[in-house]
Here is the input.
Amino acid sequence: MKTILPGFRDIELLNFLEKNYENGFGEDVRRGLTARQKCIPCKYLYDKRGSQLFEEICRLPEYYPTRTELAILKEQAPEIMDSFQRSDLIELGSGSNRKIRILLDAAGRINRATIRYIPVDISDAAVIDAASGLREEYPELNMLCIVADFTTQMNRIPRDRPHLILFLGSTIGNFSRDEQTEFLDNISSNMDESDRLLLGFDMIKPKEIIEAAYNDSRGITAKFNKNMLTVLNRELEANFNAADFEHIAFFNDEQSRIEMHLRAKDDIIVKIGSIDMELTLRRGETIHTENSRKFSREDIERIAYRARLKIQNWFTDTDEWFSLVEMVS
Here is the structure.
């Protein structure tokens, strides 16, 4: 469905979820909560409140990925945006505008006037906030908001101009190895020769640094994790009580990833009304809510090869804690 963004007559919003989203959500939850290891896809962490909490996490002293990625972007933005004009800047998974602003500033006002910024997210609030947050500072910037599941709906993004596709924050680490290949192969299939993909990768480093980033002293990550239950209650008429669960996050050495779970403090029975489901959890049983894989250079090269992508540029910090990798099809 095409609409005009409220309060912004020049910004279109295309919604490709609408009727299918709630049904898909229910199917994902039923499938995940009947699995041997109960789980829920992490994309459902990011409603409006979840996105706000994640932005708080990004500013925490323990959470190194964001500040490290921002520092790399600031240093490399002139090269990334060199001669970038008459093209689409596509952000998959809209969040804080800090990263986008760095790139837009590097483009310069004349080139910015020829750029179309396209935030893509399953949350309409996220894409609206992304666009409206930039309008006052960059009045010359063209914008198109797309509400879609970019893991399956990349073909919904207009292909009439060259693309610089951004998938930052090491969100790729939330996917399993097979999902990473499938997702990137889907992007590759929708790229032309003039398109580029800029991916963020959180690199392997000492375990204690990684675990501290997901167990912050202020408990913001715990609130973020438990917000998943609020989303279930609202969207699927469930009766979860967040106080019945505790947040746990640990590094799985074998899988080279952080795992986030919600662990039941006692035996619990929960009803999920809209999918007519009753869930029983035993004390100590967990719902797996997110993975965040950490990468080596070899991992990234292997991923690119499997997805039929070529690495064009590699940007990293002096400690090699984080990498921005530019790929082409």
